[in-house]
Model the fold of this input.
Amino acid sequence: MTDTSTEELAKAYEAKAVDSKWYNFWESSGFFKADSSSKKPSYTIVMPPPNVTGALHMGHALVNTIQDILIRWKRMSGYEVLWMPGTDHAGISTQTVVERHLMQKEGKKRKDYSRDDFLVHVWRWKEEKQDNILNQLKRIGCSCDWSRLRFTMDEGNNRSVRCMFKKLYDDQLIYRGDYLVNWDPVTQTALADDEVEYEDRQSFLWHLKYPLKDGSGFIHIATTRPETMLGDTAIAVSPKDKRYTNLIGKTVLLPLTNREIPIISDHHVDPEFGTGMVKVTPAHDPNDYQIGLTHGLPFINIMTPDAKINENGGGFAGLSMEEARIAVIEAMQALGLVEKIEPHTNRVGISYRSKATIEPYMSKQWFVRMDGFATKLRAAIKEGKTQLIPKNWENTYFHWIDNLRDWCISRQLWWGHRIPIWYRKDDPSQMICYDGQGIPSEVAQEPEAWIQDDDVLDTWFSSGLWPFSTLGWPEETPEFLKFYPNSVLVTGHDILFFWVARMIMMGEYAANQVPFPQVFLHGLIYGKSYWRNNEGGGISYLSEQERREYELGKAVPKDVFSKWEKMSKSKGNIIDPLEIIDEYGTDAMRMALCASATQAREIDLDRRRFEEFKNFANKIWNGSRFVFMNLDGEFPLTAEEFNEGLDENLLGLEDKWILSKLNQTIQSVNQKLTDYVFDQAAAESYEFFWKEFCAYYLELAKPVLFGKAGTPQERKNKQKLLVILLCQSMRLIHPMAPFITEELFQLLKKRLNSAIQEKTYIDPYTQETLNALNAAACMTAPYPQVVRQKDIDHAVEESFALINAVIYTVRNIRGEMKIQPGVATDIHIIGSASDQHFNLISSQRHLISALVKTASIQMHEMEPVIGFSSTGILNGLKIAIPLPNEMLKQELARLLKEKERLNVSIEKIKGQLSNEEFVNNAPAQLVEKQKSNLLQAEKELNEVVLKIDQIEAK
Done:
């Protein structure tokens, strides 16, 4: 560590130099490492592992800043802290991005490679992107235990995943079967229900006719998917629908195929939809699938994995589903079997990864039975085993539980945890599951006779084990015993079902304990996008350059409006965390994110917040610089003098007030962090340092520090108190702004290094400060706690509030009189000696003088003759400020002009009111108003004349 001294405290704060210096120091000193043998209480967070698909975005910066705040706070509060870092293989996402990369770079598709060769490219991608991600996390300031870095497909996690699969398989909670799944035709894999997003699209409802086989007529059905009629195997009606009772049991000839299909009744049918008769396509609709199972209908798949019509579609084979829709309708129209077409809004499933339209598709997949788990997932929240914060997410969670289906866990991908099942080549019905150790012995003895399942597990299967697989499960390692269950999970509310629920489910099942007692679900970051109304009609986004110029006020395009939207490149509202760090500094970004982390669903993140907290970092620096300058200079404070402690008998009102506010802020910030109210923790830290410490206390201390007031002993006491306040403030703010606070803490530690020694008695504030400065770093020093509860003194705060109110009133009067800040004035306060407020103000006149430019402050029990002045009333006391002599001439000139203006106005109104025509013809309301205006003007004129007389008489 390089030598640091107070002489290095530059006039301006340079964030870049400070950030890089201290992170390297922390990491190389081993401050981030957790000790599983420690006797301290444990505090554990597992990082939501970022996908190895590319760079981090502002959402990552938010979630990791919040976690680091909690980790630093708890580390400083005496806990054995483990923040487990890691990255996620992100099956579909990573495979898709690598496929795209290889197509651009080598012009090859995935299937142009062998599986093993393709995976070599993916692993290479993973290593490169993971390095980038880890470097970005370090720049954000994340104090993870990097020696424990994990990856969801590392050797330890591979074993955990295979063991969990085997446990579920042995308990008959995993099964394989043909099932209708959500199929992504772009990535050509099945998706779980919660991996499907939905959007409303404008489409049509087609009314079609099918002929009855007996030639007695037609039945009429309505459908939103006419192309799937090629796979129809029944027509269904509601058993309650009397219109069609006589048709149940008959058959129809399916147009375009001439296949006979029955008319059945089923309770799934809504008699109010369309005609009340629906076509049943069990292989291509979830409801129809259930009807097909109930009635033993054939399941005819008409679609290929890439969403084209297969051979079961006859002459339509080879067409895409969209093309087939058009062709089928045209063919039906040619046969006169299209009755009508109506506009209709369709709710369409979209892949959350590829954004392809989801197709219901019959496929052989692996599933986890969810019936038993659903009950436990509900109980975990209902019984308070896990608390969702904010609580309003509980209803959303329960709604998901109520609609839970079996979880499809297989994916038709190459990148991921390969399903640990082997099939005998000559008899695929023979299956062997992973045996808990490695490749099953039967497979090892006869490898050529067996083949492993081609599919991989859903990414969320391995992610669901993250809280305990990272700690060594299935073994009961020292880490598992010390750090499981975790203390809290911090994540975005958008993966409540994807991830949080799966972790609760897997944790209880594997370890008989929920993985964390609390889950903080933060809002999603929205950025401001800017639109313009185009001259030719329509609207469009501003380009990134136009947006930046607009925000900086350099250019203002016409017809621009803005709105908050989810961040995306196309909208131009992406905020890159590294760009923000480079421009504003890491601490400014972290404080801005903390201050924005409300418990709302959306976080509207404005660039101006970063500017605001860059200014705050500068205020921290400048306030601290003032303290250091006043520990040296003409009246230096030695380490030995500080070691003697505070003389509490010398503490003035302002000293007791700042200690009360300090303890109050410490108490509140600790509670806000406990309650995950990060925005208020940031706001209160900001308020204390900027307003109470810098704007008030430092200004009040200046006369004593500069030797213009007080005794030498009082000056020493003030210097000691400044050290205490600065040391407390740096540690209080450290979890949110670790870099600048570490720099200043180290400077303070060096300045007072010889003061750290044992004493028999010392005041608690000095003792606490000496204990803190004995730590190797701010991040390992104790987090501030209330030093002495009795020092939160509301009577002191009320007294100080009265002095502050006097200052506020004086400033208002001076403002009304247009007195410049640098002009000294006399202040006269008139009241009674029996009034406690009067006496308090009298005893604290030096505080008023410290914050307002005064010539004198005089207390009177009788109204003095002070000439021309302005007054204010406060708590029954009269505060009067005479106009300074140098301003009297200027004020006289202003009053003479005002007198002239009022005379002209009065003559004009009198002229109107003496005009009989005006009085008789004008509305009565207007006449009354003018009379009122005349009285008001005459009253104002009298006051002006009185003031003129006072000035001229002086």
Summary: DSSP finds 30 helices and 31 strands in the chain. The longest strand covers residues 196-211.
